[in-house]
Amino acid sequence: MKVNNIFFISFLSGLLIIFGCNQKPAEKESAIKPDTFSNYSKPDSASSFHYTLKRKPPPPKGKRIKILLTGDSMIGCLLAPLKKADTLNRYRFYFAAWYGSTSKDWAKSDTLNILIERYKPDYVFFTVGANELLYYSLQKRIPYYDSLVAKLGHTKFVFVGAPNWKPADEYYKILSTVVPNNQLFISKDLPLARRKDGAHPTNSASYLWTDTLCTWLQTKSKYQADFYFKSLKH
Question: How far apart are CA 148 and CA 155, in angstroms?
């Protein structure tokens, strides 16, 4: 009987990770499959936007830095490009997306705490908000974002702002009040080509988005000394 109980507890723990700790998932988005980005060849029209990065010397070799990528489905667009940009094999990436989730889903569940405890990352790259851009007012969701930042505050984190497909002034105004500037990557109004759903960046646009993020990580983020990525512009 003890063995069966242990099996049941392990099985239940797995369900909590997958389904957000028994919180009912939000309406399902079109799933992003990060491995489909491996066929990237050259950028589309969105490639006109790019920060100029002055290369710095590569850091000394050491233990690999663990990065947890989590949030809504937009986070899946960053996984394969980040792996490709990691030419020094400095990072170990962990990926856990809650498709269709909102700030309320993450704030009201302990999913984020469980993921951090499970993977013990050195850094968390988190994004949420793309599913909230159609809401009439986001002001009521400020407590949810406050709660999220409090949970993320127990580890080093970067909040990757949603690559908006609708006007996002209110969304970014809220983020700028709850997330420190050097931990908030603003993806606002990037000229990214979109998939058929009109929201998610295309494969090549995902590389552009990631390249812009990598440049910011190495030049303007709080933790720039820990990041070294190859440019994906060419």
Answer: 12
Task: Answer yes or no: is 166 within a domain.
Answer: yes
Range of the domain at 60: 2-36+45-226
Q: What is the pLDDT of residue 136?
A: 67
Is 149 among the domain residues?
yes
Overall domain count for the chain: 1
- Does residue 60 lie within any of the structural domains? yes
Checking if the pLDDT of 56 tops 90, the result is no
Give the count of alpha carbons within 13 A of 54, CB side only.
2
Asked if residue 157 lies in contact with residue 122, where contact means CB atoms within 8 angstroms, the answer is no
Amino acid at 62: G
Residue with tokens 């690559």: 163
Q: Is residue 233 part of a domain?
A: no
The reported pLDDT for the residue numbered 222 is 95
Q: How far apart are CA 192 and CA 201, in angstroms?
A: 6
- Give the pLDDT confidence score for residue 228 in this predicted structure: 86
Q: What is the CATH number of the domain that holds 209?
A: 3.40.50.1110
C-alpha dist (Å) from residue 137 to 37, 107, 169: 34, 18, 11
